[in-house]
Amino acid sequence: GPAHLFRLAGKCFSFVESTYKYEFCPFHNVTQHEQTFRWNAYSGILGIWHEWEIDNNTFVGMWMREGDSCETKSRQTKVHLVCGKSNKLAYVSEPSTCVYSLTFETPLVCHPHSLLVYPTLTEALQRKWDEAEQLLYDELITDQGYKKILKEIFEEAGLLKATEENEVEKQSKKISLEFETVEKCSKEYKQLSEEIEKLRVLLGQHGIAYKGNVGE
């Protein structure tokens, strides 16, 4: 992601609302601590640093996933990055069960170019993006095809985690490669079987019994 945001790593920012204290540690995790005198007050993880939220080719937030279990799923948090005079956790909500929303203010994102994805990429990935732009301009790919290429670029850069669909696609490619290998293997096996058959005939001519199950 944006290198200038890495100066937030190793720091934590807290926000207290009613009986809960929320703590956001960029590039690490988000925790929630219930500040009551009950013996079983909740204290747990609402998400661990996972990937970026990218919209319109711009970093808009951070996804913290795989937090403590909550009913049948894990708690997760989206941290929105907004321009502010100082680094502070400004707002916390729970838009849906076990999914939290945090607003983090920082002067580090106030510059209009501070959250652009393109400058953070390697030269090779920038070239890949430029090529996709050209293809789109020449109408050789659709808008959907362009977005797919960008998603692949973001995944390759490690900004987004590969989706389950991609994993399935990778697995099917793997299977097709294995199938090619099986074909090759069958060819080799056929040749070996023919050679064994010749040897068996040769042994038979010399009165030597061959014990083997060729073809099984």
TrEMBL record:
Pfam families: PRKCSH. PROSITE patterns: DMAP1_BIND, MRH. Residues 117-216 form the DMAP1-binding domain. Keywords: Disulfide bond, Glycoprotein, Golgi apparatus, Secreted, Signal, Transferase. It is found in: Golgi apparatus; Secreted. Homodimer; disulfide-linked. Hexamer of two alpha (GNPTAB), two beta (GNPTAB) and two gamma (GNPTG) subunits; disulfide-linked. The alpha and/or the beta subunits of the enzyme constitute the catalytic subunits. This is N-acetylglucosamine-1-phosphotransferase subunit gamma. It comes from Agelaius phoeniceus (Red-winged blackbird). The lineage of its organism: Eukaryota, Metazoa, Chordata, Craniata, Vertebrata.
